[in-house]
């Protein structure tokens, strides 16, 4: 479970400072599915980075299962991240020179898993997202939807507790978007994940039990009566 208190993030560019998050309080129970919406520049990606321990807040607490990630030494933060948190980004972020299987395996390297087991688990994860026939393909040889499936497999192969997705369908056409949303929903159910997603996709937002909106660094969370 996440417990965020007074999370503020200030970016400084030269003389200018931007208040990207302004005192965010947020609780995300285990197994929850939270959709985050809001205008561009509102602070959505910044919040996801805080939840993922990719960056630290300027002030405030980001407590995951009793540990304040904002204050963890770098090495321990890296470990929390590589064991517990899977990410899916809008731009897939695959390594272009590695095959699908090798891309997925990269998530297991920091966990000290043997090469043979890495290969098997990566193949299994790719099968579960419908890419069992594409293990040896490079990202450039796959469609956007297939690349995003590889990224989902990479996020989940380590069996994290948490899945964070930042506009995962933002670069995809409409029919592929629905496919990817279906895969994400199935993964959330099958893996019992705590799932936080930034999306403008209204179909999925309608189904989410809780909806958050971030504007100018401030968050409001509502239960979704349509879900
Ligand atoms: N690394 C950064 N350095 C400086 N400013 C940043 C950085 N990342 C984000 N910002 C600024 O913080 C604000 C929130 O950005 P972001 O979290 O990316 O919003 P969103 O994802 O909702 O579009 C914006 O004003 C953005 O320009
Ligand atoms: Mg963003």
Question: Could you characterize what this model shows?
Answer:
By secondary structure, the chain is of the alpha/beta class. The protein has a single domain (2-223), classed as Rossmann fold. The chain contains 7 helices and 10 strands. The chain has helices at residues 44-51, 74-84, 100-105, 115-128, 144-156, 174-191, 202-207; strands at 2-13, 16-28, 33-37, 59-64, 67-68, 85-89, 162-166, 194-198, 210-215, 218-223. The strands form 2 sheets. The chain has a 6-stranded mixed sheet. The protein has a 4-stranded antiparallel sheet with strand order 2-1-4-5, with helices on one face. α4 (115-128) crosses α5 (144-156) and α5 (144-156) runs parallel beside α6. The two termini are 22 Å apart. Bound molecules: adenosine-5'-diphosphate and magnesium ion.
List the topology elements.
Elements: E1 2-13, E2 16-28, E3 33-37, H1 44-51, E4 59-64, E5 67-68, H2 74-84, E6 85-89, H3 100-105, H4 115-128, H5 144-156, E7 162-166, H6 174-191, E8 194-198, H7 202-207, E9 210-215, E10 218-223
Parallel strand pairs: 3-8, 3-9, 6-7, 7-8
Antiparallel strand pairs: 1-2, 1-4, 4-5, 9-10
Helix pairs in contact: 4-5, 5-6
Bound molecules: adenosine-5'-diphosphate and magnesium ion.
Residues 11, 13, 18, 20, 38, 40-46 line the site of adenosine-5'-diphosphate (ADP).
